[in-house]
Structures are given as structure tokens and as C-alpha cells.
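RECORD TYPE: inverse folding
INPUT: C-alpha cells
STRUCTURE:
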């Protein structure tokens, strides 16, 4: 008998059942919902967090970490896909989606957070054991150990093409945006490399929570008494909550006297309300009112002048959200479910009209990071007829001397200036109003007469606004 055969065998390690980490498991659940059901993280995550809190599994720090894991993974998905692809021996399309979600969560912990390397790898592998099984957990372990060999800068240097060879593809990988989106944003922004890099980087930052104090119902002074509250940058009705601030804990928000609203949306409503009119100013229309944020602010501003707001929304369930947002408005208003391209009101009825048209949403990628991966260039063709139809209808709805505001939450030229230019060719009885003086103190609004806001310049969504007066 050989010496080796006489050595006592080491006893096999007892099998250890995987331990379910509530934070990572919840983050995985949210990513699967986004992937499988085309859900939006901002709609999926809150009920998951409420359920976890109700069970006693979560405290505030756990909720913050789960939120960071979900949103961070979605924002950086393009970069992480490129890194993971460099660490596996098959095309990513052949990796099962649940496995890819676990790998992406692990990659974000390694490359996008301060979680120590060992903890990042071990927690991701433990999650893989829970949701995938021990066999595929070994694959996850092997891939993440390869990813852990470099930091984010090291990996982007490896997987992104040099800027001088292909600027758009380089920026797409480094800043985790589809190439066509990089190209479209660059065309809209103009300028050189610095500006587009700042814009793409801003899209990957966590947006602040901004509140609006609805005039006649709440004041900024009241909201500023809340913990971690600071004044808005541009809107007189805006208050920002520092990181960790919870809107649901604010009494005025719970009562509907204030709401959560990006400052860019507030500025659009204010510019329309401040536009000079010729003649009466008693009838206002929000022609695409859902889900109701701008309608609530416009309704309050209209009430302060003795004007009435009609808020119209095509989808009945969204019209219900508008009614909820307007409930308690200090002045008269009406909410209806109607198609803005075939409205039930007579032409020339209104003094002020806002149409914040459906669009690709490329201006709100900070808030809906998954949207960048779902949108396609052909989506622009789908939205184009609706956008033009809504603007034509708005121009028909306003009286001579009245003003129409055409707004989008997209800076794409095909959804902004191209739409306005095309429609105004058919409406020689109109003129553009320079909107920039209507927002005093707000810099970098563009060449005019329209307005383009930017995340990296204003800290807002990339809202666009063109103001048009009916002249004859």
C-alpha cells in the first residue's frame, strides 16, 4: 500500500445551506421585474421596500442600500455588460437572464460602491446559491473574481474603444448609454467633448428629491422646516430634500398641499404662466395632464389670478391621478378624460394652453435609468405623429392673442425643434415668444426663443419648452 493511500482522508465539509440576504434578494427581485415584465424600477421598488419594512426585515440603511443596488446596476448596465462579456467564454445573449442579473449586481458592488471586495463577491455568490443553485453559483464566483482584478477605470480602459478611434462608442461604454442616445444628446447639446461627458455623467447620478409647494395651499417656508430641506435652485416653489429625505414623511405632501416635482417641470409651468397675453386671462388648459404634477401647479397659479383650469388626459386611470393631484385646489378646475388630438371643446376657447407631449423620455434618464435600454431610434417615428397632432390641436384650442406651451421631457431635436418647425409651417398665424426672459436668474437656457434645460447645467430633467402666440 502506498504512503499516499495510507493517509487518512479529510472528512467532507458538512453542507451549508445558503443564507438569504434580504437586501440583495430584494434588489434581485426588482431587477427581475424590470427585465421580465418591462416594469419601471421607480414603480416596482417602493412596494417591495414597504413590504420588507412591514415584515421587519429592513431599516433605513437597508432600504438605502437596496435602492442604490437597483438603480446603480440599471444605470451602469451597459458598462457592466461590457465588463462581464470580457470575463465569460460565451456571448452574453447565451447567459441566462437571472444569472446575468446576479452578475450585474455583483459587478456594481465591486465597481460602483465602497463595499469591500470580499464582501461584494461573497454576498453575490450567496445570492446566486439562493436564487440559482450551487452549480451556477460557482460560475458566478469565477466571473466575479475576474471582475475584481480591476477597478472601474481599469475596466473601462480595457473594454471601451479609444476616444480618438470612435468618440461615440467610447462615450457609450464609459458612461453606459446606448450609442444612438449619445449621438442624439450630443447633437442637441452641441459643443465639444467636455459638455457631453458632463451630461452623460449627470445622467448616472442619483437625482435629488424635489418638492413643490402648491401656491395657496403650502409655502416653501413650511417645507423648509423639514429635516434635510434646502431651497430649490430656480423655482420659487421648489424645496430640495437632502439624500435620505423621505417625501412621504412630509405632512404637506401627505395632505396633497405639496408634491414631488422636478424643478424643470415647475419651470415649464411658470414660464407658460408668465408669458405675456393680449386680452383676457381666465381660461387655461393642460391638454396632456397625466399624471397631474404640472396641472396641480398650473391650477394653483390660475386660481391666484381668478382663472379656471381644464385638465384633460386621454387615459381614464391617469385622469384619475390628475383629479387626485388637483383635489383641494383653491380655485375652480375641471378634469376630463379626452383625446387631445380630437378634443371636445370648441376652437379658440382658451387663453393659455400647455401640451407636455408623450415622448421618449430621454430627458429623465436619471430617474428612469432602464428607459435608456428600452428605447429605440424607431420610437421617434411612433411618437412623431402624436406630438405634431397634439401641438396642432393646442394651436386650434387657443384664442387669438393667447399662448401655447409645447413641452417635452426629451432634448432630442426630432421631438423638440423639428416638431415646432413642422407644425408652424402650417400655421402662419403664429409667432414664437422668447421664453428665456420669463425665467429670470436661470442661466444656460440656449439660443432661444425656446428653452432647453439640462441635468448637468441646471440639476433638472432635460425639459424643453417652446412658447407660441396665436396672432390671427
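DESIGNED SEQUENCE:
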Amino acid at each position: 500500500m502506498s504512503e499516499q493511500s495510507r493517509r487518512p482522508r479529510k472528512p467532507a465539509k458538512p453542507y451549508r445551506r445558503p443564507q438569504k440576504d434580504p437586501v440583495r434578494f430584494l434588489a434581485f427581485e426588482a431587477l427581475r421585474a424590470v427585465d421580465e415584465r418591462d416594469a419601471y424600477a421607480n414603480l416596482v421598488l417602493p412596494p417591495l421596500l414597504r413590504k420588507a419594512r412591514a415584515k421587519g426585515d429592513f431599516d433605513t440603511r437597508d432600504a438605502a442600500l437596496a435602492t442604490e443596488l437597483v438603480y446603480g446596476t440599471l444605470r451602469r448596465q451597459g458598462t457592466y455588460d461590457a465588463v462581464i462579456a470580457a470575463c465569460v467564454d460565451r456571448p452574453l445573449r447565451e447567459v441566462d437572464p437571472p444569472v446575468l442579473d446576479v452578475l450585474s449586481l455583483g459587478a456594481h458592488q465591486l465597481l460602483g460602491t465602497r463595499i469591500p471586495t470580499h464582501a461584494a463577491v461573497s454576498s453575490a455568490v450567496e445570492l446566486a446559491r439562493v436564487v440559482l443553485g450551487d452549480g451556477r453559483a460557482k460560475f458566478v464566483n469565477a466571473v466575479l473574481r475576474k471582475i475584481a482584478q480591476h477597478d472601474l477605470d481599469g475596466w473601462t480602459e480595457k473594454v471601451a474603444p479609444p476616444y480618438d478611434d470612435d468618440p461615440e462608442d467610447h462615450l457609450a461604454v464609459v458612461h453606459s448609454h446606448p450609442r444612438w442616445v449619445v449621438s442624439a444628446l450630443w447633437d442637441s447639446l452641441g459643443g465639444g467633448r467636455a459638455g457631453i461627458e458632463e451630461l452623460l455623467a449627470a445622467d448616472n447620478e442619483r437625482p435629488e428629491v424635489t418638492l413643490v409647494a402648491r401656491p395657496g395651499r403650502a409655502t416653501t417656508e413650511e417645507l423648509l422646516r423639514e429635516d434635510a430641506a434646502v431651497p430649490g435652485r430656480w423655482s420659487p416653489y421648489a424645496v430640495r430634500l437632502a439624500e435620505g429625505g423621505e417625501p412621504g414623511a412630509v405632512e404637506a405632501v401627505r395632505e396633497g398641499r405639496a408634491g414631488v416635482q422636478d424643478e424643470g417641470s415647475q419651470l415649464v409651468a411658470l414660464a407658460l404662466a408668465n408669458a405675456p397675453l393680449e386680452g383676457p386671462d381666465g381660461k387655461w388648459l393642460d391638454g396632456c395632464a397625466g399624471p397631474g404634477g404640472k396641472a396641480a401647479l398650473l391650477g394653483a397659479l390660475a386660481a391666484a389670478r381668478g382663472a379656471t383650469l381644464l385638465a384633460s388626459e386621454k387615459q381614464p386611470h391617469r385622469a384619475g391621478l390628475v383629479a387626485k393631484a388637483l383635489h383641494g385646489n383653491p380655485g375652480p378646475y375641471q378634469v376630463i378624460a379626452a383625446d387631445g388630438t380630437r378634443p371636445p371643446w370648441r376652437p379658440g376657447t382658451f387663453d393659455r394652453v400647455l401640451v407636455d407631449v408623450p415622448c421618449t423620455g430621454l430627458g429623465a434618464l436619471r430617474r428612469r435609468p432602464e428607459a435608456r435600454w428600452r428605447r429605440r431610434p424607431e420610437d421617434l417615428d411612433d411618437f412623431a405623429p402624436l406630438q405634431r397632432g397634439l401641438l396642432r390641436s393646442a394651436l386650434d384650442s387657443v384664442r387669438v392673442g393667447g399662448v401655447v406651451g409645447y413641452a417635452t421631457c426629451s432634448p432630442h431635436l426630432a421631438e423638440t425643434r423639428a416638431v415646432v418647425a413642422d407644425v408652424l409651417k402650417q400655421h402662419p398665424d403664429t409667432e414664437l415668444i422668447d421664453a428665456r426672459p420669463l425665467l429670470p436668474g436661470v442661466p444656460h437656457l440656449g439660443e432661444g426663443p425656446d428653452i432647453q434645460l439640462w441635468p448637468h447645467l441646471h440639476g433638472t430633467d432635460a425639459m424643453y419648452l417652446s412658447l407660441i402666440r396665436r396672432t390671427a
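NOTES: The radius of gyration is 26 Å.
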